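To illustrate this point, what follows is a protein record of this kind.

___
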Amino acid sequence: MNPSVPKVAVIIPSFKVTGHVLGVIEKIGPEVSRIYVVDDCCPEQSGNHVEQNCRDPRVAVVRNAVNQGVGGAVMAGYQAALDDGMEILVKIDGDGQMDPGLIPDFIAPIVAGQADYTKGNRFFDLEEIRAMPKVRLFGNAILSFMTKVSSGYWDLFDPTNGYTALHHEVARHLPFHKISRRYFFETDMLFRLNILRAVVVDIPMDAHYADEVSNLKISKIVGEFAVKHARNFCKRVFYNYYLRDMSLASLELPVGLLLVVLGGIYGVANWSESMESGVTTPAGTVMLAAAPIILGVQFILAFVGYDIASVPNRPFQRKSLRRALLPFKG
């Protein structure tokens, strides 16, 4: 094998996909060195199914003793690929909804040193997304906005898209044991990547919705996701704006929140008093309540503007290489 060509691994989480997984493997091109089918304690014994029916020498089956969800399956596949010295780790689903022919598109920005992580985005082509169910489209818009806020990647969309590629240097620095194992996996990955200041790029892909039955019910997970997004946002702000660095934005957010809260409390207190006494609140009192709220909102918007401008743009893989070469500089 040409040493200049990166060793690409494909990870396929396998749970109740025995009817499709062999077809997915057949479509994976020669640019891929290894294929890891992760049997996530599948009741259909998908690992045995692949071993008995697949003759592709690149395929290896990884088994989880207990079901860990898509996140746990992907982490097991990542670890197996890293142990085998793979350099780019691609994750696709085993249900046939993702086109393996797009793998070169996903790895190209990583090979070129322009990105550390690439993910699919089904929203580039407006004609294609008309096929997406309206409820799912609305749910994706909500989840995308929450992900932008919590992860800090304001330029990304379609956060639950599971078609991804990852550079091995970044993978080695990810805390696999902390990353969410279930449906929150993809969005939690983005939060972890931002903490590493990794560069993430969206890759356009078509939306395929035929007879697919999704286990992800937006109505059931929005509340749970909102709590987890709020937790990740607080962690990210603490790590990036107080622990790792300090800037004007580090002051704008707390000052803005404090002003909004104080203005709101003062306004509500005076409104309640006015309602009880039946006396109209003086204009000056209204302004005393409104002014800190308006000023606080301006501070918060200034923080958001700074945060949007701070999306990582220097690939982690290059920074890692630079650190490795420092001892050799005279």
Residues 8-241 form a domain with the Spore Coat Polysaccharide Biosynthesis Protein SpsA; Chain A fold (CATH 3.90.550.10). Residues 324-330 have pLDDT under 50 and may be disordered. The radius of gyration is 24 Å. Residues 113 and 318 are 7 Å apart (CA to CA).
